[in-house]
Automatic annotation (TrEMBL), chain A:
<protein>
    <submittedName>
        <fullName>Adaptor related protein complex 3 subunit sigma 1</fullName>
    </submittedName>
</protein>
<dbReference type="InterPro" id="IPR000804">
    <property type="entry name" value="Clathrin_sm-chain_CS"/>
</dbReference>
<dbReference type="Pfam" id="PF01217">
    <property type="entry name" value="Clat_adaptor_s"/>
</dbReference>
<dbReference type="InterPro" id="IPR022775">
    <property type="entry name" value="AP_mu_sigma_su"/>
</dbReference>
<keyword id="KW-0333">Golgi apparatus</keyword>
<dbReference type="GO" id="GO:0005794">
    <property type="term" value="C:Golgi apparatus"/>
</dbReference>
<dbReference type="GO" id="GO:0030659">
    <property type="term" value="C:cytoplasmic vesicle membrane"/>
</dbReference>
<keyword id="KW-0813">Transport</keyword>
<feature type="domain" description="AP complex mu/sigma subunit">
    <location>
        <begin position="1"/>
        <end position="153"/>
    </location>
</feature>
Automatic annotation (TrEMBL), chain B:
<keyword id="KW-0472">Membrane</keyword>
<feature type="compositionally biased region" description="Basic and acidic residues">
    <location>
        <begin position="732"/>
        <end position="746"/>
    </location>
</feature>
<protein>
    <recommendedName>
        <fullName>AP-3 complex subunit delta-1</fullName>
    </recommendedName>
</protein>
<dbReference type="GO" id="GO:0048499">
    <property type="term" value="P:synaptic vesicle membrane organization"/>
</dbReference>
<feature type="compositionally biased region" description="Basic residues">
    <location>
        <begin position="747"/>
        <end position="763"/>
    </location>
</feature>
<dbReference type="InterPro" id="IPR058898">
    <property type="entry name" value="Mu_AP3"/>
</dbReference>
<dbReference type="GO" id="GO:0000139">
    <property type="term" value="C:Golgi membrane"/>
</dbReference>
<comment type="function">
    <text>Part of the AP-3 complex, an adaptor-related complex which is not clathrin-associated. The complex is associated with the Golgi region as well as more peripheral structures. It facilitates the budding of vesicles from the Golgi membrane and may be directly involved in trafficking to lysosomes. Involved in process of CD8+ T-cell and NK cell degranulation. In concert with the BLOC-1 complex, AP-3 is required to target cargos into vesicles assembled at cell bodies for delivery into neurites and nerve terminals.</text>
</comment>
<dbReference type="GO" id="GO:0098943">
    <property type="term" value="P:neurotransmitter receptor transport, postsynaptic endosome to lysosome"/>
</dbReference>
């Protein structure tokens, strides 16, 4: 089972977290998460070199030796999955890759800003991949189909009433600060064995 | 109306949406908290409005704030409101918020039940999907109970998208509401063969998670998974299945054998590294999980792959440049190490190499592996390497890890691998020079342990400790090193206790009384003071022999000068000891001034040698006469009494008269019973010191401490190394010592050879020394257990067991023949020419863990031709197998030992072995025969049906025993209703008795209790009511379920 999913940036700022499992499994309160879990995890992950392995035994921090932190670093973001021994380590690494590639497809050249401003969309995408801590779908095309279908439905519901709001938000978004628009999926320095037959 | 909507939305577009909120927060970096609190106020206003769109927008923002760590639990009800919107857009926002913010203690969850149910049955698949996703995050036991049925229906939804989500969420439902597992399981099993790969993968996922918790229950699915494993191409599914088999193989050894082929195929064929890893991992590791250690060995015999091959594969992984594979390879290696240490040990070079890795995760894994790889031969070498790493390591955590590992490695299994304790002491001393370690107490306890238990080393240890004490300022130099000063505790104690070994006790005494000592922690000061007194005694003794008495007096003066510092200590312990000793020394000084010899008396204070005590020594101490350890000191109050009186005690009115006579009611028999029960309990409690009558007898006549068994070892230590030794030199010395030993051995061997005059011996010369050849230089006082006694006990137990077994067998020997009336069970087969009927006579025999079932088959020739060369064959299942004569293959048929003329019937018996009886079994079989005239082979297919009922034996049971059984609480409950049964009650009972081998225990008016027992000793109890409902209890729920199903079937046929 995947106990928790965390995305934070190079400065340890959280960009996404699924915390339901955190609540139930580690009886972590919100405060404890921010005072303890997040900084410790960030500290552990960020001090590691780029070309070391992607597994970390968090020990007591994440509730014992059965749990592991599996993470990947893309440009400015760390994607951290906390899993127990029923998950295959390399499988999860691949899942993270699928997740990021899906984000890339859905946001067209995803960057940290996309995750900042559209957390809800990221959650919706993630919901098609992992459900209640269990892997639901690993096929990227399938995930994108379902996400698109739902977005389409949303659009049709908004109909004419949604148009002005969209126009206004487009105007508002015009002066977004210029930031590197890519989290560099192409040149990840971590070599991960390819699992070609994942489809 | 439309205008209003447009107007509303125009208003809305100037509301803050999520993006605006995020932007705002980014623009207010300095006063973020203040900005957010104004935002929350806005959100509160928005939530008060009627417009659902505004509310949804507010909830969306709240979800974001929740992620940032703000408490949003106050909005739980608003989230529910948004969830219940009819629009998908808002519903999704609501469910997302709920999945992020709700948890089990959120009370509004109970309001959601109906809404979720409505969404689950929505015609829009995405409504259902969103509800399922949300539910998977916040499902509570109540929700699980109420919605289990709805979700189960969704498992057969037409859309695979819904099916896979429904299947996956069932796991959460099972967790919260375990009762749902039984009814849902058949459908879950069905989904394993779903045409959609996503659904299939979800089902595999769920079953794997379930099996992790309780693998035993999923053994029956093994064949299905086996099929999936060979057919599936989805790596995710394959990995999960292999992991599942990993959990199953320890329970069913034959599975391992079956797995070899497909697994090796996968190993050789797969291109995916992750899969390769899981395969290798499974073949060796999961097979070896602790419960059945011998199993792993037998399995290794089965496995065509030698462990070497597996380790070879892992070596490839470890040597890979990819750090992830390296890590996983080491992880798997450590699992193999547990069972096949030999095959891993040859890769020591590789593992030592990994210690140099820059990645901490990998280094830690390698360290773990090293622990299992040491031997007498390589211990010094490995520890030397580790010490180098200790010097190089940056970061205290890793260095501390190294330190504990070094000590673990050296001290494992009673210092088994240490051949030279001087070397070990010097390693420990070297470790004390580590900066900032937290493990001072660990080193200290090792020093103490070694010094006490290895007598021969004491002289050396004391010298080392004295140097440590002398250089104590190095250890306590800065505050960072406070952890290490624990070592001084050990050093002071060793120097004091074994002060006779000190070269220069006076110098050490002075070192121990330095004013700087007062800065040490209290408990260490206390030890200093106490041991200074011990040293004082030793010094006095040596000085009094001299003619000059001034030296002794000077020593006393030194004590009197220095001790007041400790008397002032804030630590009570230090203070008490110091003032006590100070007064003592003052008194001694007075005596000295009168020229009285005091040394003898002072050293008498600390006389007596400390010896290690065997863990079993206590039982050698005889119980004093007249002391009965089993009798009560105070009569315990009877249980019923305490229950009666507890509520009364609240009120002051107690009835003292009542309790007295009751106590006497507890008669002797009851007491004896309890005593027996207590003895039993004590015997099972490993922490309880058991009374052993035999040892009492031996030692009763001569009680005393002298009889505590202590292993005496006297070994001279020829080495004297001044100053702090470097542990390296021991490695050389050890080499020399071993060479000498080898040389001596050779001499001996030569002698032997000469005596024997056998010519072949050259091989021995160059052969490497084996483990056993290395004799330790010092020995540990390893407190041994008395082996002979122990082993004899074992034997007795075994004999008893055997006897019991024999008795059991005798009981079982009156076989239970019963008519198998269930005609449908064995399908009567029709074939153009032949008709056969096979009413079965099954008799059951217990034979250790597998059970033999004898099946009598009646062959009747209904055609007009002569039948010959009949061959009976059955396709074995994992559980049930036809016993074939030795030497024949698993698919060979059995020849029926007779021929059949037309119209004749004959009976043949076949023996089956059955592993588990809790499930009914259907075996397919064929009968081949030759019709004489045509001389062609004919074939007849049939099915053998082993019902669960057929494993039950009618066993009489008395009502009181029956009641006890029901009360015991070991039995699981289940019930069934029989529909449409119209027959007198006693007919019904008779039917159950007849068809299902029950006996009536008791019948009262409209209900009857019935009992039966399986051949494996499962109790099955029924309570049949005239309303034709059956309540049943059994200690094996699966068996019970199947028996009840069969009963139901019996009655549905009539």
């Amino acid at each position: 089972m995947i106990k928790a999913i965390l995305i934070f940036n190079n400065h340890g700022k959280p960009r996404l977290r699924t915390n339901n499992t955190l609540f139930t499994l580690f009886s972590l309160s919100n405060n404890l998460f921010f005072s303890h879990f997040l900084p410790e995890t960030f500290h552990l992950v960020s001090k590691r070199d780029e070309n070391v392995c992607n597994f970390l035994e968090g020990g007591m921090l994440i509730g014992g030796s059965d749990y592991k932190l599996i993470y990947r670093h893309y440009a400015t973001l760390y994607f951290v999955f906390c899993v127990d021994s029923s998950e295959s380590e390399l499988g999860i690494l691949d899942l993270i890759q699928v997740f990021v590639e899906t984000l890339d497809k859905c946001f067209e050249n995803v960057c940290e800003l996309d995750l900042i401003f559209h957390v809800d969309k990221v959650h919706n995408i993630l919901a098609e991949m992992v459900m209640g801590g269990m892997v639901l779908e690993t096929n990227m095309n399938e995930i994108i189909t379902q996400v698109d279908a739902q977005n389409k439905m949303e659009k049709s519901e908004a109909g004419i009433a949604g148009a002005p709001a969209r126009a206004v938000s487009a105007v508002k978004n015009m002066n977004l600060p210029e930031m590197p628009r890519n989290i560099n999926i192409g040149d990840i320095s971590i070599k991960v064995p390819n699992l070609p037959s994942f489809k | 109306m439309a205008l209003k909507i447009v107007k509303g939305s125009i208003d809305r577009m100037f509301d803050k949406n999520l993006q605006d909120l995020v932007r705002g927060i980014r623009n207010h970096k300095e006063d973020e908290a203040k900005y957010i609190s104004t935002c929350i106020d806005e959100i509160k206003q928005e939530l008060k409005q009627d417009n659902i769109a505004v509310k949804a927008n507010a909830v969306c923002k709240l979800t974001y704030l929740q992620m940032l760590g703000y408490d949003v639990s106050w909005a739980a009800f608003n989230i529910v409101e948004v969830m219940s919107s009819s629009k998908f857009t808002y519903k999704r926002i609501g469910y997302l918020a709920a999945s992020q913010c709700f948890h089990e203690s959120t009370d509004v969850i109970m309001l959601t039940t109906n809404q979720i149910r409505k969404d689950l049955s929505s015609p829009n698949q995405y409504d259902t999907g969103v509800a399922l996703t949300g539910l998977s995050c916040f499902v509570t036991p109540d929700l699980a109970r109420d919605l289990a049925n709805d979700i189960m229906t969704l498992m057969s939804h037409t859309k695979p998208y819904i099916r896979k989500k429904a299947v996956l969420i069932m796991y959460k439902v099972f967790l919260k509401y375990p009762e749902s597992l039984r009814p849902a399981f058949p459908r879950l099993k069905e989904k394993l063969e779903d045409p959609d790969p996503g659904v299939q993968s979800a089902a595999v996922n769920v079953i794997c998670e379930l099996a992790r918790r309780n693998p035993k229950n999923y053994l029956s699915l093994a064949p299905l998974f086996f099929k999936l494993m060979t057919s599936s191409t989805n790596n995710w599914v394959l990995i999960k299945i292999i992991k599942l088999f990993g959990a199953l193989t320890p329970l069913e050894p034959r599975l391992g054998k079956k797995l070899i082929e497909p697994l090796t195929n996968l190993i050789h064929s797969t291109s995916a590294m992750s899969l390769l890893y899981e395969c290798v991992n499974t073949v060796y590791i999961d097979v070896n999980t602790p419960p059945l250690p011998s199993l792993s060995l037998s399995l290794c015999l089965y496995l065509s792959l030698p462990p070497q091959l597996c380790v070879q594969k892992l070596r490839i992984l470890i040597e890979d440049s990819d750090q992830n594979l390296k890590y996983l390879g080491l992880l798997a290696m450590s699992k193999i190490l547990k069972t096949h240490p030999k095959s891993v040990q040859s890769h020591k070079d590789l593992i030592l190499q990994c210690l140099d890795d820059k990645d901490e995760s990998i280094r830690l894994r390698a360290l773990d592996l090293l622990y299992g790889m040491v031997s007498k031969k390589n211990l010094m070498e490995i520890v030397k390497k580790l010490m180098l790493h200790v010097d190089k390591a940056e970061g205290t955590t890793y260095r501390d890890e190294l330190l504990t590992k070094i000590i673990d490695i050296c001290s494992q299994s009673n210092y088994q691998y240490i051949t030279n304790f001087e070397w070990y002491i010097s390693i420990l001393v070297e470790l004390t020079r580590l900066e900032g370690t937290r493990h001072g107490h660990l080193i200290a306890s090792q020093m103490l342990d070694v010094a006490i238990r290895v007598k021969a080393i004491r002289g050396f240890a004391v010298a080392q400790m004295a140097t440590l004490l002398d250089n104590a300022h190095l250890l306590t130099g800065n505050m960072q090193r406070m952890g290490i000063c624990e070592v001084l505790y050990a050093a002071a104690w060793i120097c004091g206790e074994f002060s006779e070994h000190l070269e220069n006790p006076m110098q050490t005494l002075e070192a121990m009384l330095r004013p700087k000592v007062a800065t040490l922690p209290g408990h260490i000061q206390a030890v200093y003071v106490q041991n200074a007194a011990k040293l004082f005694a030793t010094v006095l003794k040596s000085q009094e022999g001299n003619t000059d008495s001034t030296a002794a007096q000077e020593t006393s003066q030194l004590m009197i000068d220095r001790l007041p510092l400790f008397v002032q200590s804030a630590n009570l312990e230090v203070q008490e000891r110091a003032s006590c000793i100070l007064q003592l020394v003052k008194y001694i000084q007075k005596l000295q001034q009168k020229d009285v010899e005091v040394a003898e008396e002072v050293s008498a204070l600390f006389a007596g040698e400390l010896n290690p005590v065997a863990p079993k020594a206590q039982k050698k101490v005889p119980v004093p006469e007249g002391l009965d350890l089993d009798s009560w000191i105070n009569e315990p109050p009877s249980e019923s009494e305490s229950e009666d009186e507890q509520p009364k005690a609240i009120f002051a009115k107690e009835e003292p008269k009542h309790s007295r006579p009751r106590r006497e009611e507890v008669d002797e028999k009851e007491l004896a019973k309890r005593r027996e029960a207590r003895k039993q309990e004590q015997a099972n409690n490993p922490f309880y010191i058991k009374a052993s009558p035999s040892s009492q007898k031996v030692y009763q006549e001569a009680p005393g401490v002298e009889h505590i068994p202590v292993v005496q070892i006297d070994l001279s230590v020829p080495l004297k190394v001044p100053g702090l030794p470097m542990s390296d030199q021991y490695v050389k010395l050890e080499e020399e010592r071993r060479q000498k030993e080898r040389a001596e051995k050779k001499k001996k061997e030569k002698k032997k050879r000469k005596e024997k005059r056998s010519g072949r011996g050259k091989k021995h010369d160059s052969g490497p020394e084996s483990e056993e050849d290395i004799t330790p230089a010092h020995q540990v006082d390893i407190v041994t257990e008395e082996m002979p006694e122990k082993s004899s006990k074992h034997k007795k137990k075994k004999q008893k067991k055997e006897k019991e077994e024999k008795e059991k067998k005798k009981k079982k020997k009156h076989h239970h023949h019963h008519h198998h009336s269930d005609g449908g069970g064995e399908e009567a087969v029709q074939n153009g020419t032949v008709e056969e009927e096979e009413p079965l006579l099954t008799s059951l025999k217990n034979k250790s863990s597998t059970y033999q079932v004898v099946v009598s088959v009646i062959f009747e020739n209904k055609c007009d031709s002569f039948l010959k060369s009949m061959e009976f064959n059955v396709l074995d299942s994992l559980n049930s197998k036809l016993q074939r004569p030795e030497g024949s293959g698993p698919h060979d048929g059995l020849t029926v030992p007779f021929q059949l003329p037309p119209g004749v019937s004959n009976e043949a018996r076949f023996v089956f072995t059955v592993q588990s009886i809790i499930m009914p079994q259907k075996l397919k079989g064929t009968l081949t025969f030759i019709v004489k005239d045509s001389s062609t082979h004919e074939k007849l297919d049939f099915k053998l049906h082993f019902t669960c009922t057929s494993y039950l034996i009618t066993t009489p049971c008395y009502s009181d025993a029956f009641a006890k059984l029901l009360e015991s609480g070991d039995l699981k409950c289940s019930s069934v209703r029989l529909e449409g049964v119209n027959m007198p009650f006693h007919h019904l009972l008779a039917r159950i008795c007849f068809h299902h081998h029950f006996s009536v225990v008791e019948r009262i008016d409209s209900c009857a209790s019935m009992y039966s027992r399986s051949i494996q000793g499962h109790h099955v109890c029924l309570l049949v009511k005239v309303t034709v409902s059956i309540d049943a209890k059994c200690d094996e729920p699966t068996l019970l379920g199947n028996v009840l199903d069969e009963i139901k079937q019996t009655f549905s046929q009539c």
